[in-house]
Every structure is written in C-alpha cells, then in structure tokens.
Amino acid sequence: MPDAIPAAAPDLVAKLALANRILYDQGVVDGFGHVSVRHNASPAHFLLSRNLAPALVTPGDILTFDLDGNALDATAQRVYLERFIHGEIYRARPDVQAVVHSHSPSVIPFGVTAEVLRPVYHLAGFLGAGCARFEIRTVAGDTDLLIRDRALGRALAEALGERPLVLMRGHGSTVVGTSLEQAVYRAIYAETNARLQAQALQLGAVTYLNETEAALAAATNDGQVVRTWALWARRASDRA
Ligand SMILES: [Zn+2]
Question: Distance, CA 147 to ligand 1 centroid (Å)?
C-alpha cells in the first residue's frame, strides 16, 4: 500500500489543468503530449492528467502519481503510457518542478538531423544551455519510440542530464522547468525558436546568441514568465 500523502493544493491542480489548455492553444500539444507538476506537499509525487487530450483536461482529471509511475487515485482510469518520462526526471532532477512532453512539430527536425537547436533570439535564451539528445535505438533497439517503462524513463532522464530540453529522435521532445510557468514558457519558445531557426538557415549563415547573451536573456525572461502565462491563460480560457 502506498503511503498516504496530503491532497495536492487545489490551486496547483487548477493551474496544471490550465497549463494543458495553454499548451494546446499555443500549438505545442495536440491530441497527444502531456504536462506534469511536482506535488506541492510531497516531492516524491507528481500531478498529471488521466489519459486525455490536453485541451480537454479539467481539474477533476488530475491524478497523483508516485515516481515509479503508479497512480495513487486511479481506480479504473486510464493513465498515460509515457508517464515514466515524468517520474524518472523528477527522481533524477530535484530542481525540476514541472515537465512538458510533446511532439511539437518544428522541433522534430532537430531531433532527426545533426543540426543543433540553438537560440536564434532572446526569448529562447534558455536554449543556450544546450539541448540533450536521446536515441532510443541505442538503449532498446527497434521500438515504437514511446517511453513505456521505467528503464526507458531512466535512460531519457540520464540523456537530459542538467539541461532544460531533450530531443527524442523520431518522436518529440521533453522540456523541464523550475516552475510550471517556466516549463510551459520553454515548451512554447522551443517550438517558436525551432521554426525561426529553420527559416533562418534557409536564408544563409545564422548568427546565434552567444553563451553570455543566451544566459543573460534567459535570466531576464525567467522574471517575465508570469506575464506571458497571464496572456496565454486568458486566451486559453476565452476559447474553452
Ligand atoms: Zn510522446
């Protein structure tokens, strides 16, 4: 029997439901993809929706999971196959408070080519810390590409290391943050930066932010994530 833990704060549950709708509204997730947040009262647990398209998630759909990927309160509810992404990253990275896994389209080419995803503008300064790459084939041979067990989740977390984003070859990407707002911000601007970088590469040689510029921009943006969140939240709520 799992240990009893306090119920998650209702405002965090509501915020996570909203994060799902924001990521859909901003084109990061579609019918697939998911976002989680670490439990406010127990670092060894996280909150994640039951198996549902993100745009449809309401606070009542949010479940509590332990880091092994077991849902504490799912009786007969279906859960996401790839929940191990979240549990194993929270286990490996005590600093991480939120995780977004998506198949956001503009990022995909950078996972299947040698082209390195790098910051082309200040809003994606966090990419200056470098993106990790995960090649599932070297870990598990030929698969359906999904992170469907703890071992694969652990391998993905190892590939991520201390970085903010890991590209998953032929599949998608996973972004982490020290808050839900920051993880959502990063997922949205990773997608935008990837699109702009592909466009810039077609025009010619690209001047990227250097390491110092990227770090300075990222620090500035980290102080602004509440502002973008407020805008995205209103848009997502208006469309609900
Ligand atoms: Zn996936």
Answer: 7
